[in-house]
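Model it.
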Amino acid sequence: MNEWELVAAYARGDEQAFETLVRKYFPLVYAAAVRQLSDTHLAKDVAQSVFIIFARKAASLKPGVLLTGWFLRTTAFVIRDLRKHMHRQIRKEHSGGHGHCRCGRQHRLCRPRELPLSRSLLSGHCAVTSTTTTKRRKHCGFK
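Modeled.
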């Protein structure tokens, strides 16, 4: 069976067709996620999310779509959403959850920035330079 016959079979309810597609495309999706995130645990979560999306949308995919491209594009979208979520979470942690500094004001020192995704960001630590981090932590009452 080619890939579109497998997609059609899954759309009709054939779970084995879905397993075959996962075995074929999971290494591609996982490798792309690891390459972009540099974190194997997050990459597995991203890959699982991509296949959950695929399971929901398989029946509505147009037959001309290249599945390799669809999986890579969907992986990029899931990673983009993960990064947005991580940035929001860090901003919320830095602001004490209410959009302003713990001192009650919102000013340049405590204003959240868009940060690049990195291991320090993924581990919940601030990824800005250590000088700014030290100043921000001291000012906002973080230890």
